[in-house]
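Fig. S4 source data, part A: sequence.
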Amino acid sequence: MKTKSFVTGLALAAVTAAPLAAQLAQVDAGIAAYQKTSGISGNVNSIGSDTLNNLMTFWAEGFQKQYPNVRVQIEGKGSSTAPPALISGTAQLGPMSRAMKAEEIDEFEKKYGYKPTAIRVAVDGLAVYVNKDCPLEELTMAQVDAIFSKTRKGGSKRPISTWADDTRFMVTYSGASQMPKMEETEASSGSREARSLTERYWSPATS
């Protein structure tokens, strides 16, 4: 980069997707409209959440229209890849679909002498998809909670590890001794952290 201040500003940012309960951000009316400057060129690397890949690409395209001499590279391999990339300096932007953990913040501060700046940019939603060949017509939120969760705050007295663990499953599914096959996101994904938060703050009244 020819403009040092531009690199410094980006190095502070760890872009995060906010929880569903986040409020719409209000922009200060006193902030002046952006004015394009000259002499901006070089490379910007973004490493982190694949959930934010499309949004990061959209922003990169808009930025490059203003500054065509800047090359923006985006790599989405999961939220947990963002902090190491920011700490090592291989990325200037670290998109994440979860908040940084205390130890990640500490490592960043140990390296640079200040904490990373988190900018909330989006709302992240999760959904459970069922294979079209599954004979079950529906799952209650309590059952989904019993299948995926460890805390079972949805009301189930025990986890659902096999189809036989719920009597309604036994009626509709012949392989009662089999375990439900579940596909999850990779360990580096911030979606796992979001599910953990769901377990912590589960409320049947709002589920």
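Fig. S4 source data, part B ends here. The CA atoms of residues 54 and 160 lie 35 Å apart.
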